[in-house]
Automatic annotation (TrEMBL), chains A, B:
Domain named FAD-binding PCMH-type: residues: 40-219
This protein's name: FAD-binding oxidoreductase
Family: Belongs to the FAD-binding oxidoreductase/transferase type 4 family.
Pfam families with a match to the protein in the record: FAD-oxidase_C, FAD_binding_4
InterPro entries given in the database record: FAD-bd_oxidored_4_C, FAD-bd_PCMH, FAD-bd_PCMH-like_sf, FAD-bd_PCMH_sub1, FAD-bd_PCMH_sub2, FAD-linked_Oxase-like_C, FAD-oxidored/transferase_4, Oxid_FAD_bind_N
PANTHER family in the cross-refs: D-2-HYDROXYGLUTARATE DEHYDROGENASE, MITOCHONDRIAL
Cofactor dependence: FAD
Organism domain of life: Bacteria
Keyword terms of this UniProt record: FAD, Flavoprotein, Oxidoreductase
């Protein structure tokens, strides 16, 4: 873009949003290398910080009129490079569009603007006896609009679903400046195409989420946590089915294979939880009422021990004790750092294929990259497997690992991203999970909603 | 259409599907009156009964080439006239596309064809220790594909969600003959636009659902049922919040106002459940484990009695006793018959507006139509209110009732259909629930996916 055009755009944006909502970085070069995973975070040529949902729509209209590419930014905690500016892009930040607008304290629904950080939202409703079940490590920084745009998951999906399941209504600004209001407030609404679904999980490629109506749960009074030692994946699957049948309050079921457990103990200096080592460990948590739920968990796990489905079990006696049990699972943060540069997978595998898949990938990676570490763990309750493999000095090795894993995912009829999204990093691999007619239809929808193609271009579909 | 064109179409369909899959009704007249609610069921000029999902797609391509309007038919149990043939339409029935294709017994996912009746599906998985939680009165006849196309609800939405929440994957035949395969098998899949959502609840206007991957629950071992007498709607809302916090196994929360309760007792010759009459009654059910769950329900309701949130309570001691408690709620079938011709509403109202809404509608209808009966009840757990009002001899009175109720729904920011859908009957009222930009986008999606406009024309959006 020529300097003159940029001036005209700048002027129009300042006129629309006000001077203090537009900042220009004159040092930003147009061209930039394309390796997103390792590149230093790119700076946009201009950053827009509108103050209201309506101003987001106005800014988009101006950008579309000038055919100016724009990247939408929430809390910048994504793992797929979707919010990283590409060469020549303007950034549109939702950081100031962050008000809590209304709260139905009787039914438990909350209306908020997209830029509200997740943790602020959680705290706000908890003070009123309600609970927003979405939770993830980036809670302090990630924004609720970004959670919606990427259909965030986390540890409690097995009970409460993903972000998609927690959204009743949305308002979206389209690139032509239309405000598409779909601010439904009821759980059941069957009045034609559920348009909001188009924007959940499509990573800002079809419109910018500006407002949300969220479904809350009553605040549970207690969490109960247990760590189970299990003899095989098969037994873990049996344990999952039994606990789901007996404990409606089951909210987490985190599986860790032995190799992950050892690596976690090493790096975080944790003691072995049991006298013996076991092939598989499962971290179980329920959320609900203190006494009845605890009793039900204890009785269920006792029976699983008697039936031989579980080999050993520790039930946390205090909140501090529960944290110690979660520490094995949460050592993943330190493992990610240690194994850099790594390949970190966030894949979904049908349960009946899971064990074979893990075996196939473990064998294949160990044979080809015997010097590297390959770890397996995940939110088994919802078929979400994480694989962490590294370190890889050569980018070509990393690419080979990705190709190997994704090809095996396709064979297993799984998906290449369960909760992190596609962004820029996984866009080249999308065809491993989505059929050609699907990708074709996604492109048609993109053209329908963003005819000038200014919005998050190059994300998801290339 | 001229006889000659019809012959060419008939020939092409016979060639595509085989003679035994195409039946022609030569007695059907082209023109027909447009009053769907009272009209005798119209007969289509031709009925197609393909045997495979692939043949559905082939039939659609032929129909589009001939620009022949087609109505998609499942079990014909819908309440919004969506599957009733309009003048000149060909019917495409899914009745023979009804195979159970595969079953992941470890993870609990089932792959079926769209024409499978709901009850057959339920029975099949229950024999294997799994449970498909969707349930509705028409279970014996309705088909799973129709349940998806209308996003069916029922009594257990509060815990398990609507049909949308139970669908992992879909295959859809588009009017151009494309088979759009979106047969995802995992709970979490964040790989771009979740295209299947377009087809769930859009009542067959965008494509024909041919295959589904469904999410199952482990079979609960027991249901526990209670009937609660409550002093006010406010207390019922408080009861709902407390029970949701304490009982994750809560699967039904059915509210009946006093006037409904009296009418139900009258028509079904049922005894009053309590010594006194109360303003509001709530039928509560949990699904889960027998002993622990029952104990938790008893303890929770005891505490609600102590706190004065509940005035009186009956907990069912046997399955027979539970049926007796449900009989009040299920008298609705007989009430529907008695009050014919009636206006039967299936609306969603935000909880904080519910009490005011019921009062406003009750007062307005009683003042204008003092001779008629007006009853209020619903799946309160999910904001779904049913209003039954009748009998009305004059069609203009019926229309007036509809206009009054829907205008009040709009004021309350509710929706005009929570679970029955829009079909033909409610299409004129769609604007009470959806904004102009939404309806405009629905029309654009219709043109994108069905450019010749042959599929379920006139349904949902006019």
């Amino acid at each position: 873009m020529h300097a003159q055009d940029m001036d005209a755009l700048h002027l129009a944006l300042v006129e629309t949003l006000g001077e203090d909502c537009v900042s220009v970085d004159t040092s930003v070069a147009d061209a930039h290398a394309g390796d997103w995973s390792d590149a230093p975070r790119m700076r946009p040529r201009m950053t827009l910080l509108p103050r209201t949902p309506e101003d987001v729509a106005r800014a988009l209209r101006v950008l579309a009129q000038h055919r100016q590419a724009v990247v939408v930014q929430g809390g910048l905690t994504g793992l797929a490079g979707g919010a990283t500016p590409q060469a020549g892009e303007v950034a549109l930040s939702l950081a100031r569009v962050n008000a809590i607008e209304s709260f139905d304290r009787i039914g438990g629904t909350l209306t908020v603007q997209a830029g509200l950080p997740l943790e602020q939202l959680q705290t706000f409703v908890e003070e009123e006896g309600w609970f927003f079940p979405l939770d993830l490590g980036a809670r302090g920084t990630c924004q609720i609009g970004g959670n919606a745009a990427t259909n965030a998951g986390g540890n409690r999906v097995i009970r409460f679903g993903t972000m998609r399941d927690l959204i009743l209504g949305l308002e979206v600004a389209l690139p032509d400046g239309t405000v598409l209001s779909m601010m439904n407030r009821v759980t059941k609404n069957t009045t034609g195409v559920d348009l909001k679904q188009l924007f959940i999980g499509s990573e800002g490629t079809l419109g910018v989420i500006t407002r949300l109506v969220l479904k809350l749960e009553p605040m549970p009074s207690a969490a109960n946590t247990a760590l189970c030692a299990v003899a095989s994946f098969d037994d873990a699957a049996r344990l999952l089915k039994s606990l789901r049948a007996r404990l409606a309050s089951l909210s987490s079921f985190e599986l860790m294979w032995q190799d992950f457990m050892s690596a976690a103990m090493d790096i975080a200096h944790l003691k072995a939880p049991f006298g013996d080592a076991y092939p598989v460990y499962v971290l179980v948590e329920t959320l609900g009422e203190a006494d009845d739920d605890r009793l039900a968990l204890e009785r269920s796990l006792e029976q699983m021990l008697e039936e031989g489905i579980v080999q050993d079990v520790i039930i946390a006696q205090t909140i501090e004790h529960a944290k110690q049990l979660w520490a094995y699972r949460e050592a993943v943060g330190e493992l990610l750092s240690k194994l850099k540069p790594h390949a970190a997978f966030d894949i979904g595998i049908p349960m009946e294929r899971m064990e074979r898949f893990v075996e196939a990938v473990r064998t294949s990676l160990a044979a080809r990259f015997p010097q590297q570490t390959h770890l397996f763990f995940g939110h088994l309750g919802d078929g979400n497997l994480h694989v962490l493999s590294g370190p890889y000095a050569a980018a070509s090795d990393l690419l080979e690992v990705e190709e190997r894993v994704y090809a095996t995912v396709k064979e297993a009829q799984g998906c290449i991203s369960a909760e992190h999204g596609i962004g820029v990093i996984k866009a080249p691999f999308l065809h491993y999970s989505r059929s050609e007619p699907e990708i074709e239809l996604m492109r048609k929808l993109k053209t329908l909603l963003d005819p000038t193609g200014i919005l998050n271009a190059g994300r998801v579909t290339k």
